[in-house]
Amino acid sequence: MKKITDLRARQILDSRGNPTIEVDCVLDDTIMGRASVPSGASTGTHEALELRDGNPERFHGKGVRQAVENVNTVIRGRVVGMDATDQFHVDRALLDLDGTANKSRLGANALLGVSLAVCRAAAVGAGIPIYRLLGGVGTRFTPVPMLNVINGGVHASNNLDVQEYMIVPAGFDRFIEALRAASEVYHTLKGMLREQGRPTSVGDEGGFAPDFAGNEEPLQLIVEAIRAAGYVPGRDIFLALDPAASEFFEDGSYVFRNPAEQRMTPAELVDLYEGWLEQYPIVSIEDGLAESDWEGWELMTRRLGERIQLVGDDIFVTSVERLERGIGRKVANAVLIKPNQIGTVSETLDCVKLAVDRGYRTVISHRSGETDDHFIADLAVATSARFIKTGAPCRGERVAKYNRLLRVEETDGVPYWGAAALER
Known about the structure:
Elements (H helix, E strand, L loop, with lengths): L3 E10 L5 E9 L4 E5 L28 H15 L7 H12 L9 H19 L3 H6 L8 E8 L12 E5 L6 H21 L21 H12 L9 E5 L6 E2 L2 E4 L5 E3 L1 H14 L2 E5 L7 H11 L4 E4 L7 H9 L5 E4 L1 H4 L2 H13 L3 E5 L9 H8 L4 E3 L6 H17 L12
Parallel strand pairs: 4-14, 6-10, 10-11, 11-12, 12-13, 13-14
Antiparallel strand pairs: 1-2, 2-3, 4-5, 5-6, 7-8, 8-9
């Protein structure tokens, strides 16, 4: 038994310069686990509540002092004395203490900070990495990264409607070689943009964010960059998209504004995606339709679900209840996993288990407002997730996750999913 003797929370800054919460969990033998909580920009309406202070005179209302206070008082009083190695009962105590469906009393950010810190303290106390603590002998693979190399939507100030254009280096035998190839393509792409006289400043997730002639042009440019870097599109490196369609869903229509306003029905937008699939080696589309458009999702899954991975993010929000609904309606074939959408480690693992049991793939994901905490890298390995999303090979808070996976591969010999991740 590793008894929790103290909890300490503080306000720190995330990668966008906004406040977030960091929590220390101290055990009876002076072992400590520290964790910090990310924050999203493109958030689903059904996500658990991220508690913000709302005081316009401090951090423009985005402070988290109340969430910090909740950890240091109410939550501390309940959790101190519990066994850190019993993650389920700690998380159950947190949920009972909050008592709301969306964590609105104490804040999902407060609950998750504690849940993550307890998990890390338990791993430190046991002398094993988090991925072994959570995955045990079931830990089998290192995930394929999905690297966001061109940013749009709410992640950038350019004119792209589509939020993320990603490269997927699945055609390699080792993670270290896949990451090298991705980095080389990223820098080749940067050089191409410079040659065209375009800015190479980056968006929230490290991808480049210049203006483009339309939402298809980035696909063309990325394929050119893959070839110019010496790799074969569709064999070594593939493409993935996160349109984040809820952001451009208006009155039942999907509205692209680049290069000119184009209003599409769900079927017309699926037609557009299908046309792109014919021209580019796209293997995954996340949030291709809006979180409330269940009928559209059913249509898209019928038409594209046998060809590519269709990932539900805003529509599922790492919720067992919403994923069960999606499975029942045959919506999507993969789920994005973001711990801060749901609020505790145990609930996150429950969603992963349901997905795996029902034949859905899992993609472990960062948020646009990140910290240097690499928990999601361990989570991906622990659950043998096929894919991980954590941004471009740029910016310290993104690279921290990739570097963690490099160390896992080197020290523990966990094999890389590689091309097998693309198999049905």
